[in-house]
Amino acid sequence: MRFTSEQHLDDGLRERAFAIGEIPGILWSPLSASPSAAAPLVLLGHPPLGLHRMYPRLVARARRAAADGFASATIELPGSGDRPRWPAAEQARADLRRTVTAGRRVGDEVVDALVLPLVERAVPEWQAALDALLSLPEIGGPVGYSGGVISIGVRLAVVEPRVSAAVLFAGSFVPRAILEQARQVTIPLHVLLQWDDEANDRQSALDLFDAFGSTAKTLHANMGGHTGVPEFAGEAAARFLTRHLR
Questions:
Q1: Contact, 43 vs 126, CB < 8 A?
Q2: Residue 106: inside a domain
Q3: Considering the domain boundaries, does residue 94 fall inside one?
Q4: Greatest CA separation found in the chain?
Q5: Cross-strand partners of 42
Q6: pLDDT in tens, 210-225
Q7: What whole-number distance in Å separates Cα of residue 168 and Cα of residue 200?
Q8: Which pTM was predicted?
Q9: Is 92 part of any domain?
C-alpha cells in the first residue's frame, strides 16, 4: 500500500489517495484518529462507474462517517475508472442495455455474466485493501461495509469475518448463486430499498432480504427511483452503523 496524495478537507477530514498494486483507492479519516484512539472502519461500496464520477457521493458519506468517529475507505472496481479495460464486463453491460431497451425480461444468463465475474474479482481486492488499511496504526476495528454492488456486499459478508455489520444498497441485479449464499450471512444487516427503482428488480431484492440468515436484519424501503434515496434513510443507516461499530 502506498499513499499517492493527501489533503485536509474543510471540516477536519483527512483524505488520502492510495494504491495497492494497480488498485486505486481513497481513505478518509477524522483528524482525531490516532494510534491511541484508532477509528473503526467503514468500507464504502459503490457501482462500477469510476471513483471520479462517484466521488461527490462517496465524500458525502465519508463526511458523515467521520462525524460519527469512523474512518472510511473505498477502492476502484475492476474495469472501472482508470483501471485496465475489461472487455467481458463491457460486453455484459452492452447485453443488459440491449435487453432492457428491447423491453425484454433480464434473464439469469445476462445477470450472471454481468455480476458474478465482478464479484469474483472485486471481493479479493476488497480483502487485500482491508489487510492494508487495518495495518495503519490509526485505523482499527470493528469494520462495517456500506453500499453496493449488493452482491459484492453479500459475498464479502460471507467470506470476510472482519466485517461485523453491513448496510446494503438494493439497487442492482442479484444472481441466483448470490441468493443462495445470502443464507450464510449472519451479521447484522440494514438494507436500503427504493421501491420504484428503475434499475432494480424489486422482487429479487425482497427475495434476497428474506434469504439472509441474519436474525438482526432491517429492510428500510422508501418510495422513489434509484437516485431518490431520502436524507432520513441515510441517517437511519448511519445510526445502524454507530450501534454496531461502537
A1: yes
A2: no
A3: no
A4: 58
A5: 72, 144
A6: 999 999 999 999 888 7
A7: 14
A8: 0.95
A9: no
Residue 199 has pLDDT above 80, yes or no: no
CATH code of the domain covering residue 203: 3.40.50.1820
Please write the tens of the pLDDT for every residue from 121-161.
Answer: 999 999 999 999 999 999 998 999 999 899 999 999 999 99
Domain count, the chain: 1
Q: 52 lies in which domain range?
A: 2-84+116-245
Give me 133's grid cell: 488499511
Q: Is 171 part of any domain? A: yes
Encode pLDDT of 27-42 as tens digits: 999 999 999 999 999 9
